[in-house]
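Dear H.,

Thanks for agreeing to be a second pair of eyes. The structure we're designing against is below in token form, covering all 110 positions.
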């Protein structure tokens, strides 16, 4: 995979990693509560993140207020870097219920 920005060589960007995660909106800077990794070739897609997608000591049920983010990573890591593309949802209370969040990854990280 060649790490070309999406806007320059979209056909060669299909293998870039995409990270989708749910974080506690009340604990800034903490690792995600749940996450999944994909590739650009998988997009668009529908995914389901729940307690079974837990990646650390806490799960989605441990947070009242959450936000969902998606990152297209040029270097293959889950940490946003200059030139990556990212989107973050508004904070919302899931109230232990299924929530549908639609994200469009379009903001370049500067």
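And this is the sequence the design step returned. I haven't edited it by hand at all.
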């Amino acid at each position: 995979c060649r790490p070309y920005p999406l806007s320059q060589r979209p056909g060669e960007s299909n293998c870039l990693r995409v990270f989708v995660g749910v974080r506690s909106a009340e604990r800034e800077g903490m690792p995600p509560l749940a996450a999944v990794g994909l590739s650009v070739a998988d997009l668009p897609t529908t995914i389901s993140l729940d307690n079974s997608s837990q990646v650390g000591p806490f799960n989605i049920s441990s947070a009242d207020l959450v936000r969902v983010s998606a990152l297209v990573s040029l270097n293959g890591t889950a940490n946003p870097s200059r030139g990556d593309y990212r989107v973050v949802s508004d904070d919302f209370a899931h109230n232990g219920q299924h929530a549908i969040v639609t994200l469009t990854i379009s903001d370049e990280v500067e």
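Two observations from my side: The first strand starts at residue 17 and ends at 24. The two ends are 22 Å apart (CA to CA).

Warmly,
E.
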